[in-house]
Design a protein that fits this description.
The protein has 366 residues and is of the alpha/beta class. The protein is built from twelve helices and 19 strands. The strands form four sheets. Strands 1, 11, 14, 15, 16, 17, 18 and 19 form an eight-stranded mixed sheet that branches. Strands 3-4-5-6-7-8-9 form a seven-stranded parallel sheet. Strand 15 and strand 16 form a beta hairpin. 50% of the residues are buried. The protein binds pyridoxal-5'-phosphate (PLP). Pyridoxal-5'-phosphate binds next to helix 10.
Length: 366
């Protein structure tokens, strides 16, 4: 199945493996059981596409989806008519009609937001977001404790109590235990509600972090959330080789002449760049090594800065005919972990995925 590639798309393609997505979800659901496993599909399902990801996960048995914004909730609803769809950024009164029509459930983190949701009378349940130490969204512990004795949570239809871990990807970080203890205290004050704390990495922190519902995102999409995680890659990004050129030791490659060749080289010019979300920081410039791509099964380091639409890879060590115009280079996927590329660019897989190019061809299979 191919979903709406840009007309005439060429040069850059993504192969998106929905079977791998489902296998990742099933593995996480197995780890979390008897807790239920949701799916976080904010930011267009981490770039892979809500319209593709949500039906695949719903068919596998996923019944809870988390989005960031109501518009994403509308798209998730169209893809999963019977699921619970939670809007992490809360209740936007300007979009009240969307919540009503599509039965979207806001995640509420301010007393005023609970009151506004109760007053809107949308009827759908809502979640209470408690901040246990991240200092992002949610009521702090004292505010949540005060609220517990009031009628407002009931009037606002609070059926889920949740918090979010700041350091779950560092299992030994003391923040994990602090947040767990804080969340336990709050959850006790909201009996009968579904409780949810763990993101992808949190699932690996152990049973006591699972509560009733876990909320993985990145591990569904192939990011390594934890040393013990074994997510399968979901996205394979490939760029076409446009030209292969020879250059002599001492010459430079790319903008700023920021990379000087130390040997006579063959250089493959690839049809992808930072306009495609392949970060400029992944380049090899000013003496720093960069990321690598895989061509004909061999790892080929980038040379020079990443341009807007182009980048250069070192194919000197490949057999003469192994890299030719029209061949494909894997930017990330089964042969080149997305986390390795992200690390080379000083970032995380989340940023590479949510930056997936809009002009690439997308082939969905599974
Ligand atoms: C994004 C997000 C998640 C998912 O986090 P991952 O690290 O991608 O698993 C879970 N809960 C909340 C509140 C989030 O914002």
């Amino acid at each position: 199945m191919t979903i709406a590639p840009a007309p005439g798309a060429a040069g850059l393609r993504y192969r998106i493996d929905l079977d791998a997505l489902v296998r990742n979800w099933r593995r996480l659901a197995g780890l979390a059981a008897p807790a239920e496993c949701a799916a976080v599909v904010k930011a267009d399902a981490y770039g892979i596409g809500i319209e593709a990801a949500v039906p695949a996960l719903a068919a596998a048995g996923c019944r809870h989806f988390f989005v960031a914004l109501p518009e994403e909730g509308r798209r998730a609803r169209a893809a999963a008519p019977n699921a619970a769809i939670w809007v992490l950024e809360g209740f936007f009164e300007t979009a009240a009609e969307l919540y009503r029509q599509d039965g979207l459930r806001p995640v509420l983190g301010r007393r005023e937001a609970l009151a506004a949701w109760a007053a809107a009378g949308a009827g759908a349940p809502a979640a209470l977001h408690v901040d246990t130490g991240m200092n992002r969204l949610g009521l702090d512990l004292a505010e949540a404790a005060a609220l517990a004795g009031e009628a407002l949570p009931r009037r606002a239809g609070i059926s889920l109590a949740m918090s979010h871990l700041a350091c779950a990807d560092e299992p030994s970080h003391p923040m994990n235990a602090t947040q767990l203890a804080g969340f336990r205290r709050v959850a006790e004050r909201f009996p009968g509600r579904t409780r949810s704390l763990a993101n992808s990495a949190g699932i690996h922190l152990g049973r006591e972090f699972h509560f009733d519902l876990v909320r993985p995102g990145i591990a569904l999409y192939g990011g390594a959330s934890h040393p013990a995680a074994q997510s399968e890659p979901v996205v394979t990004a490939e760029a076409a080789i446009l030209q292969v050129r020879r250059a002599r030791a001492g010459e430079t490659v790319g903008y700023g002449a920021a990379h000087r060749l130390v040997r006579d080289s063959r250089i493959a010019i690839l049809a992808a760049g930072y306009a495609d979300g392949y970060l400029r920081a992944a380049g090899a410039a000013d003496g720093r090594p960069g990321a690598s791509v895989v061509i004909a099964g061999r790892v080929c380091p980038l040379l020079g800065r990443v341009s807007m639409d182009l980048m250069a890879a070192d194919v000197t060590d490949l057999p003469e005919n192994a890299a030719a115009p029209g061949d494909w280079a894997e930017l990330f996927g089964p042969q080149m972990p997305i986390d390795t590329v992200a690390a080379a660019a000083g970032t995380i897989a989340y940023e590479l995925l949510t930056g997936l190019s809009r002009r690439a061809a997308r082939d969905y299979f599974g």
